[in-house]
């Protein structure tokens, strides 16, 4: 009986010594969400919030206030507040090189300078605070107004 107890205790000791190697948790980064996903998901949570000129959230936005707020909340980066200044911030990206989470800029006033901003969602769509719609919406850049007025993208 003593031999059986000793063997059980020996097996349990070996098992407890081996346990940390067997039950190693997955690295923390495996469960983390990518920066791009954070930007896109947080931006989408703002859909339908009211457009109000010269506001930067959390419940109302103008276009550059929207991009400013989303970037600050998801990346911690404080980008410039105006769409014109944002259009000069970060790495310039062409239309064909846009990736989800990039900022997109438009010259919507017909004066040739950046006057509108949004966040690229992929598949020629972007999210923005629209003064004409009066709220945060998703729009297409594939044709029409935003296709014609596109100036550039910026990767922050």
What is the molecular shape?
A: elongated
Largest sheet: 6 strands, antiparallel
Order of helices and strands: HHHEEHHEEEEEHE
Number of helices: 6
**Please, what is the average pLDDT?**
88
Q: Can you put this structure into words, describing what you see?
A:
The chain has 156 residues and is α+β, with helices and mostly antiparallel strands. It has six helices and eight strands; from the N terminus they run H-H-H-E-E-H-H-E-E-E-E-E-H-E. It has a six-stranded antiparallel sheet with strand order 3-8-4-5-6-7. Strands 1-2 form a two-stranded parallel sheet. The longest helix is centred in the N-terminal third of the chain and has 21 residues, at 2-22. A hairpin with a 4-residue loop joins strand 6 and strand 7 (135-140). The N and C termini lie far apart (71 Å).
Write the layout of secondary structure elements.
Layout: H1 2-22, H2 28-31, H3 35-44, E1 50-51, E2 60-61, H4 63-75, H5 83-86, E3 91-93, E4 103-106, E5 116-122, E6 125-130, E7 135-140, H6 145-149, E8 150-155
Parallel strand pairs: 1-2
Antiparallel strand pairs: 3-8, 4-5, 4-8, 5-6, 6-7
Give short descriptive properties of this protein.
alpha+beta, 156 residues, six-stranded antiparallel beta sheet
Task: Write a concise synopsis of the structure shown.
The chain is α+β, with helices and mostly antiparallel strands.
């Amino acid at each position: 009986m003593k031999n059986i107890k000793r063997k059980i205790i020996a097996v349990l000791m070996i098992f407890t010594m081996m346990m940390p190697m067997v039950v190693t948790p997955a690295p923390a980064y495996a469960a983390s969400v990518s920066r791009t996903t954070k930007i896109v998901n947080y931006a989408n949570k703002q859909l339908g919030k009211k457009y109000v000129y010269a506001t930067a959230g959390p419940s109302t936005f103008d276009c550059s206030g929207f991009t400013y707020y989303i970037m600050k909340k998801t990346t911690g980066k404080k980008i410039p507040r105006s769409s014109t200044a944002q259009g000069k911030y970060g790495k310039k990206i062409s239309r064909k090189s846009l990736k989800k989470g990039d900022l997109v800029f438009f010259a919507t006033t017909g004066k040739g300078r950046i006057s509108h901003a949004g966040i690229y969602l992929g598949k020629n769509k972007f999210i923005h605070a629209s003064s004409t719609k009066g709220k945060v919406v998703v729009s297409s850049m594939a044709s029409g107004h935003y296709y014609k007025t596109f100036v550039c993208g910026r990767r922050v």
